[in-house]
From TrEMBL:
Degrades free oligosaccharides in the vacuole. It comes from Polyplosphaeria fusca. Residues 557-641 form the Glycoside hydrolase family 38 central domain. This is Alpha-mannosidase. The keyword Isomerase does not apply. SMART domains: Alpha-mann_mid. One of its GO terms (cellular component) is fungal-type vacuole membrane. SUPFAM superfamilies: Families 57/38 glycoside transferase middle domain (SSF88688), Galactose mutarotase-like (SSF74650), Glycoside hydrolase/deacetylase (SSF88713).
Amino acid sequence: MGGESNRIMPISKSYPTTAAGPVGKQIHHIYADRLRQFTDGGQYYEQGLLPKLTEARAHGSDWVKLSVYSPPNLSRPTFKDATSHKFKSTHVGEFFGPSWSTHWFKVQLTIPKDMLEKEHLEFVWDANNEGLIWTEKGDPVHGLTGGGERTEWILPKTFRDGKEHVFYVEMACNGMFGNAPGGDSIQPPKPDKYFQLHTAEVRAVNLEARALYFDFWEIGDASREFPGDSWEAHSAQQVCNKIMDTFIAGDGSNKAIGECRKIAKEYLGDVDTHKVYDGDQEAIITGIGYCHIDTCWLWPFAETKRKVARSWSNQCDLIDRYPELRFCCSQAQQYKWLEQYYPSTFDRVKKKVKEGTFQPIGGSWVEHDTNLPGGESLIRQFLYGQRYFESRFGQRCKTFWLPDTFGYSTQLPQICRISGMTRFLTQKLSWNNINNFPHTTFNWVALDNSQVVCHMPPAETYTAEANFGDVKRSITQHKSLDQDKTSLLVFGKGDGGGGPTWQHLEKLRRCRGISDKTSLLPRVKLGDSADDFFDRLEKRVENGLDLVTWYGELYFELHRGTYTTQANNKRNNRKAEILLRDIEYLATLATIKKDYSEKSSYKYPKKDLDDMWENVLLCQFHDCLPGSSIEMCYDDSDEIYAKVFKTGEQLLSDALSELGFDDEPKADSSLYALNTMPWSRSEIIRLPSIASLPSYGLAHTSGPGMTQIRPLASPFSAAVASIKEVRPNVFELRNSQLKVEVSNGVITSLYDLWAYRELIPKGKKANQLILYDDKPLYWQAWDVEVYHLASRTELSPSKTTISEDSVHRVSLDIETKISDKSWIKTTISLSATVGNTPSSIELDSEIEWHETMKFLKVEFPVDIVNTEASYETQFGIVRRPTHYNTTWDMAKFEVCCHKWADLSEHTYGVSILNDSKYGFAVAGNVMRLSLLRAPKAPDAHADMGRHRVRYAILPHKGGVGEDTVRTAFNFNNPLKIVGHDSSTAEVERYGTPSLLSALRVIGAPNLVLDSVKRGEDDEDVSRGELPKNKGRSVVLRVYDALGGKSKGFLSWGGLGVKSVWKVNALEDGVEELSAGVTEVEDEGGEKVRGVWVEVRAFEVASFRLGL
Ligand SMILES: [Zn+2]
């Protein structure tokens, strides 16, 4: 340049010398309010943008001819079955129902001539319920959700030939959230809802007008949601007003729409393709599509299977249209359903998984509850989940994904780590109704010190509508900005399924455009997976980023009623878990005994076990086991559990019979007690009613295994139990350790003769039943609110009678009326002591329950002082406050326990054991076991009817220890009385009898040998889903139950073990221990082989013995 520069600046000739007229300052709120006129459905609708979106429509039988087949009895037939029936003519305007019924529509569609050349044609179907479009050949192609949610299907190009084309719509008579009667979706479903088909037509869409609609929406949001003192907000408002003025000036013509879009571009940039994400400026928000499908909730499992097909077929289609979309989906069970019932959709998904656009995540069988399932169940959620993902897609998941579950057990980080996962995502704690959880991204640390990186998306939802506000909140609600500014934005319709929509993707493109143009909105990017997000985070940690830590459970300060609601379901879960442990243990022994496969055709029942486990894991879904589903779901789960128990009893009987036992002992067979727990037991047990037998027998087993029962015909020692009425309505039950006084039906004294200690404070009443009023703020089945405690009402027992008075066991029956319709009968029993085995007072209650919004608990005031109580959790103990010092302490006014809860001082304590309960509280020195609730939504009949619950009071010397752990296991797993053919009892070593006691841990009573099972991929066990391993192996799970690093001797008696490996929960080898194999003397002085293992405090350690 140069040469033409002029040193004298001329006065601008073009700047007007005089004012053209007055120009006013825009009154901000008026120009802001005006924007609504352009896109709302009010009085200016016809003058606005909305009518321009549709260029033409065709409906009526000339173009969309409809006929229907309505299958009977609320059945859900397959495509083949449905289309084999006769269809009868129908039309728009008809009603279809009732709730939960299915209707198959044959659609004969012809595109009118004048629409053939239109740019974009859609078929629009809306009956305010859900549907699935099938091709004429029977492939599902597109899901529909009525009420305008997702009602359009882009017509294939092949339809533009002027000829008639046929396809089908499978209509499901439920909305996305089931069939609630009105606006309150958690009310029990209405059985007689009918749905009007109000739209079935072909539409030609003006894509430019549609694009302008989204331009205007997002720029409008910027004008409203950017800070009022930012130029970006003002500029957005100016752009929107300019767009409206331009549209009006051009009379809404296509030309005017084009000009409007140009104006929008000033603010958005080019947002018409996925290339908007190509810029290399740093994006701190990773948008990831997700579709939360509750496996059951306000609809039954059968509907979920269809929701999966509807939702995921849409995602496959959307990924094709929006290449930036990455969609992740959890729950192996849902993939398995798709594979079983919708193979062609499964193939579509599989292809997308391979491309990396459809991403399996979570690693678990379902998105399960984590408070209630037992430790082994949590492991099996991953074992079954990860194995499914690996077998079908060749990959395991790295991220545990549980956005919607009601609180997170303290051992999850460890269980994730041993199941191949290093990260965890949730957001549910944003629902806390007392304390605000302080972190977004942090290290979450388990009882054993294992950690995972945890992220809680700051938009505080897993069903984001991908609005401007969601993107903004990803930074304004981010609580870990001191450490890291990145976050995930999890978007897509959910709970009832759905997933991302094209609208979400259009909005996000514009948000990205706005970020690039203004820099005020945090920049979002798509095209990455959740795993990519975590990979980057882990990388930063590797490079020195110090994330804050959170130790222990992520207690959810809401939904505390879910430890108790739907008692029967919870009881079934506990029973099934215990049954499965027994079956796997005995079936394992049956397949490794000496003459296995020589004399018998017995095989490890892998398929049946898999079916049982998959069903139990399914029922642990986060709305099923917690009790927050509708009645239909519990009808289903009752059936599922019935099947589990039926199979289980058969498997148990098969395994026992392979081991030479008869599970229904005959009069002449020798009676044995079989102990499947890995420790010694001495118990008085009730014998089967066979004429020749007395009522009780004594069983003493040293270690696991079997022992002949000694029938107790008469007092066998000085240790006897006794009972007497000492004063009117005051009874004394006594054995050599305990003296219990029951006055007017409640325990007024419990004296430990061994410890010289009274447990019940003077004037207090233990085993006192309490009724509370139970009306939470909203979520009935889910919540019990803190104020229920003020409504405490003591129930008065009406009658106490001695029901058993033998020297071996004494019992009192106590009857208590709750109301005209409800009552409780509790039997308090005390057995004679056996040796130095600590005694417990057993309580067995039968409850008839027909209450409304009441909560029944049983209370134990005890003379113990401690600011913390202990509760059994999966593979360990969680300690929680017994006081209300802070709001964090008070929030835990109702907590979850497993088989026991304990309050102890250094010298003495008491454990309350149970056989099927999970809700508990300790306030000061009052321990409270939660028994039953009576919510009326979403199941109007939750928990009504007959219940049985067993619990026990176990006083003990010293703090909580192995007596509590073992007695609670024993209480849940009574000795099995079996017959045994003595001729086979005399088999040489490592035939049955010694085999039964072979597997145990010696020398560390805090170590529990929990599961014993065969290796998943052993050649004689494997079902072939993953490569087989040569030979036989046994997998043993050992954990420290009390919190102390220990060395124990893992013994296999005299079994021929060739190799020993420490393995992870997925049974991958971690460390070979074979070199350490040695021999020690057991407690009985017998030489046993095994290996010393060291287990960290609260570690869950798995070992594989190669045979
Ligand atoms: Zn959910």
